[in-house]
Amino acid sequence: MAPTTLSADVLVIGFGKGGKMAAHGLADAGQRVVLVERSANMYGGTCPNVGCVPTKMLVHYATARHLKDDAQEYFADSVEGVRALTSAFRAGNFASLDGKPTATVLTGTARFTDPHTVTVGEGDDRVTVTAPTILLNTGSAPVIPPIPGLATSEHLVSSTELTQATALPERLVVVGGGYLGLEFASIYQHFGTHVTVLEAAAELLPREDDDIAATAREILEGDGVRIITGAKVTKVVDRGAVARVEYEQDGETHSVEAGALLPATGRRPVTDDLHLDAAGVKTAANGAIEVDEYLRTSRPHIYALGDVNGGPQFTYVSLDDSRIVLDQLLGQGERSTADRVAVPRTLFITPPLATVGLSEREAREQGLNFTVAREKVADIVAMPRAYTVEETRGLMKFVIDADTDLILGAALLSIDAQEVINTVALAIRHHITATELRSSIYTHPSTTEAFNEVFGKVTPGH
Ligand SMILES: Cc1cc2nc3c(=O)[nH]c(=O)nc-3n(C[C@H](O)[C@H](O)[C@H](O)COP(=O)(O)OP(=O)(O)OC[C@H]3O[C@@H](n4cnc5c(N)ncnc54)[C@H](O)[C@@H]3O)c2cc1C
Ligand SMILES: NC(=O)c1ccc[n+]([C@@H]2O[C@H](COP(=O)([O-])OP(=O)(O)OC[C@H]3O[C@@H](n4cnc5c(N)ncnc54)[C@H](O)[C@@H]3O)[C@@H](O)[C@H]2O)c1
After folding, report:
1. What residues form DSSP beta bridges with 353?
2. CATH of domain 5-141+268-339
3. pLDDT level of residue 333 (50, 70, 90 thresholds)
4. What mean pLDDT do residues 180-205 have?
5. Which residues are catalytically annotated?
6. Tell me, which fold does domain 345-460 have in CATH?
């Protein structure tokens, strides 16, 4: 049987957020779009299948657990809840794109054979796709640090396996205390696992201000997570039902044992199977596809969106990448990565830590004239919501330009921080002052009404 050949106006490789949204936009505009995804378990990409959605649902389940619940049974039910939701989202993602009259989803690994052509799949099932415009959206994969014994350990688990596991490990060691590591540490500790985090940096969350990082650490440790900073992991040795992880701290050797071992030391762009050489697309030393501010690669008809282009690894950044590419292909071609201002982040521990803009330390390092508005969540009288939901841990902090009253940054370690930070980011983007935020009307009881009070607790920055 001769291989099938398809031609499209636009070929999208990878069903991540950016590729998906671009494919929808282009198909809605009448263009013939072929989207290639290598796994039938990944329609919609990392976020809804093995990333944001399952982990945030696990945060929800884990924190709702009662001590009277049987830990194993509750965990298994929670994972089943996640599986049901992710399956539904996956099916929806496939159907909503493939169901469009001018869009086709192909399942298989795409490999370039020349700058305008890829093959998908193998043998008789192989399909050849050609297109004048190609979007690369192949995402990222975990880095396994070169620690002797780690990659070959029977106890090595991936974040994906942890979102799909059927048995709750008694003990979990997480190597790396960044976004992924701390989220899993918090989730699993709440489910009842004993979690140890081994972080190489001298302090946890080193980019945050000391007071914020210390409060986050206090909360995690208060929940029972053991956190070891300044830890150099040297060796992993399997010993039957557990792995022994050896590490050095302050020149001394220690070890910790666990049945599950999660490397959470960053994620690298996925380009391995693409045969980018055949397309003439260049990558940087870190493996990311090189792009300009319009996300054009070294081949102007090929764009790269999402984690694979080396930008910040967040779903909403991949989404914004799709806006830039759609503006190139259907619009005025003006939108670029340079337009991004005040992009917020949320670390989904419990309560979450959401940040935007400058920290106090960064404002100081930049020599700015600033003030700091800061208050512990438990002390914010104007925000009884924390008491009504029985989560009064945390700290809210704003960095304010002392000359203009504009907000330079915020760190909110608080219930609902993942929502409230978006209002702060909007205020920064649209030049709304701290005084205006302080004197606005908010619903009650809500977390946003903390603004009414915290912006009044101002001290000079130093
Ligand atoms: C556990 C976890 C939790 C996270 N939580 C959050 C969060 O709460 N909030 C947030 O904003 N971000 C979160 N992230 C990050 C976020 O998931 C990623 O930044 C985002 O999903 C990246 O999307 P993308 O568009 O780059 O591509 P992806 O969604 O990664 O999709 C890439 C797709 O390309 C496919 N592919 C790869 N190579 C080929 C090929 N050669 N041919 C065909 N298909 C191919 C892959 O199978 C995959 O489906 C989390 C990540 C993880 C791992
Ligand atoms: N809520 C969210 O938005 C969310 C959640 C999970 C993941 N993500 C995305 O996924 C990306 C990957 O997450 P991540 O946590 O793997 O990476 P990360 O870069 O956020 O953190 C990696 C951590 O590992 C530490 N580390 C590196 N090598 C080490 C070693 N050998 N031993 C001990 N510690 C070591 C680093 O110091 C750092 O603290 C993040 O950058 C983030 O953008 C986002």
Report:
1. 347, 413
2. 3.50.50.60
3. very high
4. 98
5. 444
6. Enolase-like; domain 1 (3.30.390)
